[in-house]
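LOG
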Amino acid sequence: MNYRCRVLPQGGEARVRVPGSKSITNRALLLSVLAEGESVLSGVQSSADAAVFADCVRSLGYDVEAEGDVCRVRGGAIRKSEASLYVGSAGTAARFLTALLGLSKGVYTLDASEQMRRRPMQPLLDGLASLGAKVEYLGEAGHFPFRIRGAGQGGEVTVDVGKSSQFLSGLLIAAPVCGGLTVHVQGSHGMAYVQMTADMMREFGVTVRREGNTFFVPAGKYRPRAYRVEPDLSAACYFYALAAITGKQIEVEGVELPSLQGDAAFLSVLKEMGAEVNGGRVRGTGILHGVTVDMSAFSDQAITLAAIASFADSPTLITGIGHIRLQESDRLHAIATELARLGGKAEEGQDYLRIYPAALHGGTVRTYDDHRMAMGFSLIGCRVDGVTIEHAECCAKTFAEYFDVLSALSEQT
């Protein structure tokens, strides 16, 4: 399905609603699964990624009931010592469940979509092997599919997070129920999502201690609880960016600051560019300056910033984003390529992008089956006539209703 964008009028006010946070939903689901007793999660995201995660834990024998944005989970020890799991394209399911099963006492076969098969797993699998897990690759070494016999214990492990902080988050979440872990971290990566993991673990009853690049997690038990998932700031940021380039005031319902989510930092970027920011509301002022920003800690918004940077009055430099080459697409190259397709000018480095002011024109944007490319580049189509987003249905990964919400904005303003 292709989506033909519509140019939105300047000015006006609008309110939008976004799904619950995918990052929080999946962490809360796994923490609830590992807690002995029943947890009730509200505000959960019902995306393709979240559904895959829920199906995986059901495959391990857990009882997960979902109705609307409420999920009931009856947790405890892993019910099945042998199972086959399909993680689809869900990075959190892929890394978190691999960590958990690699520290368990069972034997599990894990596979993924072609997209996820290309994404890195080797650093996590090497760490698990150092603890005693046995990994049998059923395809290319270091990638899905594979069969893993869990180590059945914790201990001391070193993991390189240069390609994904999810490797570390997965180990931390699994640590209490496998006897505890000391995790030494190598590599450079923003730690906002790791902090989210530690904060949520504490809310479920386990405290992570950090000393420099070493994390200590004791053996222990998670407590079941009622838990409310925040609105997804990754999704909200598209509408905040839209406000900045259209002079609108846009409020995203339910967003409260401070937030567990690292993407809240994007609001500060918009403020530096010239937008007015007030809690969960952003208003464009007709001014948009270029910025220099290290986005290593909130790199999901690199596409969003790149999409609006051509409208600024000076160049924008985005650094610390080399790892986004290894996500759903080579995002760094995809950004530069698709901006050029619309008349933009971007200089692509190994781990940075420099985007120059440009008079953009219409065209068809390739999405590379990457939901963030589809949503981010749709912002250009709200300012520039004739922009079409190819394969817009890929947004179902995290926000199936995104283009419906975007279309409805023209009726509110």
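LOG (cont.) second protein
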Amino acid sequence: MSVSTEISTGSLLWPGASGRGTKQADVRAYNERLLLTLIRRHGRLTKAQTSRLTGLSAQAISVIIRRLEEDGLVQRGTVLRGKIGQPSTPMALAADGAFSFGVKIGRRSVELVLIDFVGNVRHSFREAYAWPMPDAIIDFTRRSVAAVLAELSASERARIAGLGIASPFELWQWEEGIGAPAGAMDSWRSNDLVQAIDSDMPFPVYLQNDATAACGAEFVFGRGYEFPNYLYLFIGFFIGGGVVLNGGVFTGPSGNAGAIGSFPVTGADGKAAQLIDVASAANLEARIRAAGLDPSPIWNQAGGWALFADFIDDWIEEIAPHLAKAIVGSCAVIDFSAIVIDGGFPDDVRSRIVHATQKALDKLNLSGLVAPHVIEGTVGNQARAIGGACLPFFDKFMLVSTPMLHDAG
């Protein structure tokens, strides 16, 4: 029986540890995580570079690297031969060093992925629905995991770190917003999804808010290491967000940090509203439906967004000013150096949203603030599922944050 865990990266150096500790095993585990985290950030590092970054001796680095090699987590790259000194060998993460499942529970579909240690999606499954129900989610997850396990070797199965679930919290509250009948989603109130899935799995199961998980995916596999502090926005059926502070994903005491959808705005009718009401893909769906068309291709069909070009133009023009105002409000509280925008849409739509948001931001009064960089995320439509798969990696192989963000030299 595995241990179900809800990851909270807001207060711990790594889950299950309160600091470096004094025991030799604690120090060894910390140093291994430190090296894996630094190698992940930089892509590849020589022993000399790692020693400069950590302050550890060359001998200590050699011992740690040898142990990580034996565990199959790192691999040697091509020997670098310079004009002066001994040749050096950079170390990189081994793609087959570990695997992880991620499950995204969305308002219109559920998705499961298996990723390797460097973030490649090895397997992917997806099912659409009118609204999410726990029994269907559990059945889909069991079937999909079984299908993947049947294709893996015994060695690969032994390297599965766990399964992470990326889900909106309190799903029963979304009935009206997603068009479900009153009471249809009440079963979510009493259903312990993690326990139900965990009971069938030979590895631990984790849970995180879907937008925070997507933020984790960008942090680990995207542009996350470029900025030590940034606000992450993911525009799915509803908009959500995540926060990175001091080089680490910050979830807050309730796991709800970055809940940008709750940001207060003024709606088109001049009344008080929230950002989730005016800057979500649900608004696009409503536009298409109001025109008497079926909006399902934007959720269920490859290339579906291209079918609604005129609607998308108007939608982007509508949401950009709201996004810009939410960004200014957020930067007034925390001095974010960047705003990363991603979502469940094609890359060209993401690019246009970022451009329109930047234009809207340029029109606002930013006196007293340093204007943040507004940039595109890179993980894309699968960010929530991949973010779920990151949760076991956070737990087993990474430091939540590290101050060692300077150049490796």
